[in-house]
Design a protein that fits this description.
alpha/beta, Aspartate Aminotransferase, domain 1, Aspartate Aminotransferase, domain 2, eight-stranded mixed beta sheet, four-stranded antiparallel beta sheet, 44% helix
Length: 391
């Protein structure tokens, strides 16, 4: 039965994070594992009102098949939001997708053959690693530094024939790191010099609670880039609505791939979300999210300084949803997880974010989905677990 499944299925495994979430179903466990938005901030009442208005006015069309490209009104709203941030985007260059995760699958179908060289950050986003792995590429990783990717490694990867570079320049998952303004310009120059496709994933860019907004690498390039976005972090993940901005030649291929996948993203979800955006101040709502996440991040950092033993380094992101911790060399975050679960606290070990098997002494901590009281107690427990490990 070894030939029962396609060869590619032997190289892709279940999401490590999804498996950990099964462990955290225990209500006694304080979980910093999932990359989950805070459900207390979901605009339930406003969405309920929007849904009633959709069914009262355009109910039949909302329940019908629709175009692959996505709801025209929703795409216009996305373009208008970019314009307010100084980026001119044609609504007809926006493809609405079933979550931003679908964009990665579509990119794999459109761009990758077996053995294609894909450059990713080290550590890299696990969802991208999983999505691209189905197409059996050759991953080439570049180290993330405090201000962005290592430029020597990046240029070497481009010289070696990279097909594309996938990155998260704003508050990266898992590290929380962001590219500096200077590094964004340098990356754009290298991409143009070697004519490499850039897939810029930006689900966290609006969640900045410190510092100034920086331009996308997409806006600094002469062309050859995709810009991906999502409503999961600023409205509701359950709608599974993302989007990608793409040049026309790539856009047409993405549309074909999406038609083969699902015909179109949920018409009902798009209609309700559009109505919500038309009748509510999304910017005010995002400001509320930023304020809450900023305070939760501050509590987690304070507790890390208070409870973590010396020798444990923790990043201090200016936005997003994650902290990244590095244990002393020679220690294992997988071993730490075993101890932590016994102490009723959970996190994601760092190794799954590295395609080369490294990152043994790293871990990701999510601060967005816990209130300050649980963060304080969870970090105290985790500090105890780390102390036990190091002893």
């Amino acid at each position: 039965m070894s030939d029962k499944f396609a060869r590619r299925m032997g190289t892709v495994h279940r999401s490590f994070i999804r498996e950990i979430l099964k462990v955290t179903a225990d209500p006694e466990i304080i979980s910093f594992a999932g990359g989950l938005p805070n459900p207390e901030l979901f605009p339930v009442d406003a969405m309920d009102k929007a849904a009633h208005e959709v069914f009262a006015t355009i109910g039949t069309s909302a329940l019908q098949y629709s175009t692959t490209e996505g709801d025209a009104g929703l795409r216009a709203i996305i373009a208008a939001r970019y314009a307010r941030r100084g980026l001119a985007v044609d609504p007809d260059s926006i493809l609405v997708t079933t979550g931003s995760q679908q964009i990665l699958d579509l990119c794999g179908k459109v761009f990758l053959d077996r053995g294609s060289k894909v450059v990713i950050e080290r550590p890299g986003y696990l969802g991208a690693i999983q999505a691209f792995s189905l197409f059996e590429p050759e991953f080439v990783t570049v180290s993330l530094e405090a201000d962005g990717p290592n430029l020597e490694e990046l240029e070497a990867a481009f010289k070696a024939g990279a097909k594309c570079f996938y990155a998260v320049p704003n508050f990266q998952n898992p590290s929380g790191m962001s590219y500096s303004a200077k590094r964004r310009e340098e990356v754009a120059e290298l991409l143009d010099k070697y004519d490499v496709l850039f897939v810029e994933d930006d689900p966290y860019g609006e969640l900045r609670f410190k510092g100034e907004r920086l331009p996308s690498v997409y806006s600094l390039r002469k062309g050859g880039s995709l810009l991906c976005g999502s409503f999961s972090k600023i409205a509701a993940p359950g709608f599974r609505i993302g989007w990608v901005v793409a040049p026309r030649d790539i856009y047409d291929k993405l549309v074909i791939a999406k038609q083969a996948a699902d015909l179109h993203t949920s018409t009902v979800a798009q209609a309700i979300l559009r109505r919500y955006l038309e009748t509510n101040d999304i910017e005010q709502h995002v400001a509320l999210i930023r304020e809450r996440y900023g305070s939760q991040r501050n509590v987690m950092l304070e507790m890390a300084r208070k409870h973590f033993p010396a020798g444990v380094d923790v990043t201090e992101p200016e936005g997003g949803m994650f902290l990244w911790a590095t244990l002393p060399e020679g220690t294992s975050s997988m071993d730490l997880l075993d101890l932590a679960v016994k102490d009723k606290v959970a996190f994601v070990p760092g190794r799954p974010f590295y395609v080369d098997g490294s990152g043994e002494n790293t871990l990701r901590l999510n601060f967005s989905n816990s209130d300050p009281v649980r963060i304080e107690e969870g970090m105290r427990r985790l500090g105890v677990s780390i102390g036990s490990l190091l002893r």
